[in-house]
Amino acid sequence: MPATSFAHAVLSAAAVGLLLSTLRRAGPRAGGLAAAVPISSVPALFWLSLEHGGGYAASAVLGSLWGTGLTVLLGASFARMALAVHAALAGLLAWLAIGGLVALTWALPAMPATVAVLTVGAILFGHAALPRLPASDPHRRATRRTGTWLSMAAAGTMSLLVTELSRHSGPQLCGLVAAIPLVGMFAVHAGYRQGGAPLMLQLLGGYLDGMAAKAAFLGALAVAWALDAGAWAWPIGLAAAAIALRVKHHLRQARSLSTGG
Prior knowledge:
globular
């Protein structure tokens, strides 16, 4: 098994540990933004671009871009259902719903314009569908420290499996698999255990902000590779993500001022 697969696994595990530490120290919105960093997709896309070229990697990026839109829908639907049923059941139902949507839209990553439009629509819908923060949560529980180590171990193991699978599949499937929100899942779970639904929803708010930036990054990356930008595709993608975050910040400030918050 290639050494890069183990390096990817170690990186993902370390990222989860750092994320959970950020959640405790810097607040849930910062933790949500950290969870949205494409820990799984960026290394996979990087190696795909080196091993198969920009054209192949661009096709994989389209899969990751649609996976990002699906992730937003997954988070919003989970948040809605978690207010009515147990978090485990809400997570199962949300995954089943998104899994059905994946099956229905399997051919979409081959259509760039359609993927871009639907991803933007999914992100906007996800933000609108995210429920308001409840005043309290009677099921609040404390987070055990052992949960951090278990989350890191699971993230490393899953990351290793995802990386190996991406080496033996087509580009669209590679992109979709790379977009699995592994770190985000652990972050949301940790937020729910630490502070119940209120903290979980704050975390999801930051996570959805990060998803918008991730979508901008992936979209710019795909366009740059399609135009044969080579290594310049990475700084172009990062610049697009930074602009998206800045725009999102200004929009939040404007909304806060308009509502007197």
